[in-house]
Amino acid sequence: QYRIKLVQFLTSKGITRDKIIFNGLGRSAAIGVSVLHAFIPADQGHIPGQDLSSYHVTLSRRSSNTATDANNFHVLPAFIFQPFVFADHTEILDKELGSSQPDNVFRLDMFSIQSHIVRELMEEMFAFPDVELFASLQKYHRELDSFPPMSAFLQCVKRKTVRVYSTGIVVDLRMMRAELTFLMVISDPLWGEVVHNFATAKGESRYLTHVPATNILDDAKLSSTYGDSMPPQGAIALFEGCQILKKILSDQRSG
């Protein structure tokens, strides 16, 4: 009902339906982020010149208690861009971020999309506690840096086997807000082992499924498996991400 009233309100202001997605009047300022996580499974190994068939992508099935799109599939991680705040946060940030290691780009500031992606990946795939559960930013970083999946991730970063690509901006007309979509490709065999061992060990596997990337670009397999069971931003991040991954791998082989 709210969305219907919003469209009626915007139309009354002379903002026609074809221009609604470009006008921010009366709209939520929230920014959503949907990331397609692609990796080489542990049993696949590292194949020089690998193609799309070497990769799996991760989907998460939302619980029945989720406020939106309950029981539907979504890419992982998917979240609202939300800088975290502690009590007396200005003093804490000045003190603690100023003392952070300068070469650790994934933990420096709370307004970084890149930092959010990694943080949410650790939470959604490996059940690392939410940042809001920690007493201080310093304690959060200390625990996160010693968390085995995070340590392995930073090893992959150091070896330059992690790549993050922006794949577009989606406007979900049901939510009336913008959603940024990304593709995260981790081509390190170490990461495949981490996903296999820790995602299962942390009890999250019942909500996760790892799908061969080639299945996503097969219309018959895609529609028969997922059909309409994904929110629009998730479906676009999934399909566009696999298309871009295929092109990236093709360019790497031909280059």
Distance between the termini: 53 Å
How are helices and strands ordered from N to C? HEEEEHHHHEEHEHHH
Radius of gyration, CA atoms, in whole angstroms: 20 Å
Helix-strand makeup class: alpha+beta
Oligomer description = single chain
User: How would you describe the shape?
Assistant: globular
The helix content is 25-40%
Topology:
Blueprint: H1 2-12, E1 32-39, E2 56-61, E3 73-75, E4 78-80, H2 89-96, H3 113-126, H4 137-146, H5 148-158, E5 162-172, E6 177-186, H6 189-201, E7 208-212, H7 213-216, H8 219-225, H9 232-254
Parallel strand pairs: 1-6
Antiparallel strand pairs: 1-2, 1-4, 2-3, 2-7, 5-6
What does this structure look like?
- The protein has helices at 2-12, 89-96, 113-126, 137-146, 148-158, 189-201, 213-216, 219-225, 232-254, and strands spanning 32-39, 56-61, 73-75, 78-80, 162-172, 177-186, 208-212.
- By secondary structure, the chain is of the alpha+beta class.
- Strands 1, 2, 3, 4, 5, 6 and 7 form a seven-stranded mixed sheet that branches.
- Strand 5 and strand 6 (177-186) form a beta hairpin.
- Helix 5 runs antiparallel to helix 6 (189-201).
